[in-house]
Amino acid sequence: MSTEITIRLGFFLGIFVLVAVCEILAPRRVLSTSKASRWFANLVIIGLNPLSVRLIFSVLPAAMALLATERQWGLLNNVALPYWLEVAMGVIAMDFAIYLQHVLHHAVPSLWRLHMVHHADLDYDLTTGLRFHPIEIVISMGIKLMTVAVLGPSALAVLIFEVALNATAMFNHSNIHIPIAVDRVLRRFVVTPDMHRVHHSVIIRETNSNYGFCLPWWDRLLGTYKDQPAMGHTDMVIGLSQFRNPQKLSLPHLLILPFVGDPGRVPINRH
């Protein structure tokens, strides 16, 4: 367990610094609000999330995978596959589960209220990709643990997925300029910043698209893919229409937002 934490933390810090530097050297958009105040709120929330998970759960996904293997829980523990194929299928299946979970957070009103904290960010950079309300993180962890128990992936598959999910969340929420030709190739294999940024548009039909975090295939296969925002990436408006005042998106406001904030016209459940 200590090795898992060391690996995940090492990758997290390394990728965070790398993406942050790239955002400075090659920004995609000009930020519209104070970066200092946004980063303070976002980073505090990011720091609260692992503490919240630790308070609720005694077992994390990699440990659950070991338990599932020991007790032969889950689909992949009950079929004979080459180890490399089992690892690959485990990573892909868990990514699909995250896609479905993301759609669920837009479809269920109570979950959407929590998810609003992520979407209410008025700018878009790597900290946006990690800014989720602590209660949403706890719910997501519960779903993830159930997914591991049902699928039965190996601990290695879980570790690879956890590192990849964290890395791609920072990458595809980054404010990095990637040439269009390069983006066209990349988004065949991974969700790119230009692909996922559409999902953070204030326009509802665009918010209701591009749910993928790591692999880009699920949006294409299930009809939720949108190639580009109507206003273009430099002119599109980021966030939610009901939350436009930066002073009301400070840390205390974000923590109580799910309980007092206007849910607005949610893309999927607005009727």
Describe, in plain words, how this protein is organized in 3D.
The protein has one domain (2-260). It is globular. 59% of the residues lie in helices and 0% in strands. It is mainly alpha-helical. The protein contains twelve helices and no strands. The chain has helices at 2-25, 35-56, 61-71, 83-107, 109-119, 134-151, 155-172, 180-186, 193-197, 204-207, 217-221, 251-260. The longest helix has 25 residues, at 83-107. Helix 1 (2-25) runs parallel beside helix 7 (155-172), helix 4 (83-107) crosses helix 5 (109-119) and helix 5 (109-119) runs antiparallel to helix 12. The model has no long low-confidence stretch (mean pLDDT 94).
Features:
single chain; about 270 residues; mainly alpha; 12 helices; globular
Which SSEs are present, and which pair or pack?
Blueprint: H1 2-25, H2 35-56, H3 61-71, H4 83-107, H5 109-119, H6 134-151, H7 155-172, H8 180-186, H9 193-197, H10 204-207, H11 217-221, H12 251-260
Short overview:
Helix content is 59%, strand content 0%. With 271 residues, the chain is mostly helical. The longest helix is centred in the middle third of the chain and has 25 residues, at 83-107.
